[in-house]
Amino acid sequence: MRLSNATLGDVPASIRVPGYDRSTLTPGIVHIGLGNFHRAHQSWYLHRLMDQGLCHDWAIVGAGVRPNDAAQREKLLAQDCLTTLIELDPTGSSAEIVGSMIDYLPVEDGNGALIRQMADPAIRIVALTVTEGGYYVDPATGGFDADHADIKADAADPTRPRTAFGAMVAALKQRRDAGTRPFTAQSCDNLQGNGAILRQTVVSLARLSDPILADWIDGNCTFPNSMVDCIVPATGPKELALARALGIDDAVPVTHENFRQWVIEDDFCAGRPDWNKAGAVFSDRVHDYETMKIRMLNAGHQVIANPGEILSVETISACMEHPLIGAFFRKIERDEIAPHVKPVPDMTPEAYVDLIDRRFSNPAIVDTTRRVAFDGSSRHSGFILPIIRDALAAGTSIEGLALVEALWARMCEGTREDGSAIAANDPFWDDLVVAAKAARDRPRTWLEQKRFYGDLASDPRFADAFDRWLTAVWADGAEAALAAFLGDGTRPA
């Protein structure tokens, strides 16, 4: 059965379908970045509100600014923007059809359609999932990267922007000039202070071409911080087959774990859906939730993905089953990460380690090591290095975290220990490979990449530990280094 509005009545009874009339929905949100995570997370929360008879004027209009977004658009429009969500759990699976998205804008040079849609007063929220590395942030300083070619192009011609942020600036200019209230700009990416980072990017970009507009945006738009969480693998042949086995021909189904969390700062200048009625949490402690999740779950992913790639372990659950990688994860989390994380309501850092352990170990979720290791330059800069800095300041152990960085450097050399090649997996891959090869003979070459490490290369505690561990990884292999760390926790054998 080909998925569409016309065939919803033919969906097997075991699959939940929208209980609302999709033809009555009107748009209130533009969401840029219609990947799997958004469709399993933010889209689902709104869908469940709509099932309660709420928020029918908040439907999502999808958008993208990259050329490959056009293919995703074609697939989704062909099935009326419906998505099959398949929940995978060791105890069994379930599925439902999500219908909160009603359109997908054309992907075009200059982003005219996107700008027009965001300028429409009916749009009250513009949300984004564009990955951690998509916000034009200098990883060494955390400041705005005004030297990026895309940013320079948008500043030179703000009427035909290349970036999502340039399109937001152009739309906000139209709204200001028309006397229309601004929209809320909402990041849904895994970034500490994601709303503040989005504000920095949008306002800084506007300031390059129109300082008065930048001040208006800064003073009138809101940029709520939020924490998002759900493990959502990429879609491939296996996921397509799962949907077909359920009786549904869906070109872009999404699999996900039996867990979701969304904690949001309640700061919306133009109204918002009552996401809390679908299980989200509005809180003034978003930063604490973010810190726990980013430092423990997202950093934990990097702890296991890099040795997994080196040792040819293909999935995250298999990494957790590996006697050394799984033990490495647990020791790092408990001894070197948890001490720098505050508890949040109903969850201590220690209990969160156990929760992540169970989630990562779920064999029904086929989350590839390669996917998790992608864009390490952003993920190590955003997830691991802040912990190292805090640990150095507090005088606590950084030995395991130094080994984590050494394993990333070893992975970026571009080969696994079985001799197979690791395909390019980072926006800075070519530079990383050059540095990793040089670091084999002189480890500190890796730390001298100031765009990632800043002044950490000059800290003797961290630099000396990194030097020892990378030397050991190259001399004796990743497993021997992991075993040495797990043995006494301080030095290579």
TrEMBL record:
Keywords of this entry: Oxidoreductase
Record-linked Pfam families: Mannitol_dh (PF01232), Mannitol_dh_C (PF08125)
Ranges of residues in domain Mannitol dehydrogenase N-terminal: 28-277
Highest taxon listed in the record's lineage: Bacteria
Domain Mannitol dehydrogenase C-terminal: 286-473
Coiled-coil parts of chain: none
Record GO terms (molecular function): oxidoreductase activity, acting on the CH-OH group of donors, NAD or NADP as acceptor
Entry protein name: Mannitol 2-dehydrogenase
